[in-house]
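Q: I'm writing up a methods section and want to include an example of the input and output format. Could you take the sequence below and give the corresponding predicted structure tokens, formatted cleanly so I can copy it straight into the document?
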Amino acid sequence: MVKNIFLDKVVLITGGSSGLGRTYTNYFLKEGATVISCSRRNNFKNKFYTNNSKFYYYKFDLKYVEKIKIFIKKISKKFKKIDVLINNAGVAINGKIQDIDYKHLLTSFQVNFFAPAIITKEVLKLMKKNNYGRIINISSGGAVNCVENYFTYSSSKAALNTLTKTLFKEIKKYDIKINSMSPGPCKTSMFPNNKLSTQLSIPTIKYLASLSSKGPSGKFFWFMNEIDIFPNLKHINWSKPKKL
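A: Here is the clean output for your methods example:
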């Protein structure tokens, strides 16, 4: 008999009502996990959710970052632990750099970076107390490829990758793993012209959510492939710079 590895786990997924978040919510519920899903809209109306005692929905707009601490404190009190955190909620604003204004930048960073950073900060309190946690930041290939017309999206996701790398160095003494992953060019309401199914990212999600204590941390994954997006600068001899 194959052991159900998520049966006793509590999973928090942001932006869980559609696209990737909905796919991940469905997956972990089918695996027997307790799933806490938050989003701006409640699209969980059918019987699969309403009759599921392991599903909890909270209506929450991550744009209001000042309320995140209260939200996490509320669910921490109720569930006592969060084993897996998936920072999935995101926005993508299309526009050339010369057309981007402050509101576009602010919204992108509020949802794609500020909110995940604060959620992670608050959830870490529980994870450290329980000495266990798996954090998955849903990033994008755009953060590496820097696709034209998506400056705000790519830059905010790049900041999320930096959070992943930095926090990994700060929590080494705990059994807490944090990694970023790109789900690939999958079709969602945010990117309706993409071709791939959101289901194709499930193996990577499963892998990162179930890492052993010796598993990778501070890394970036693309379809189960670990990609080095942070070059090691230590080998560079700064005292003898190369001539250009």
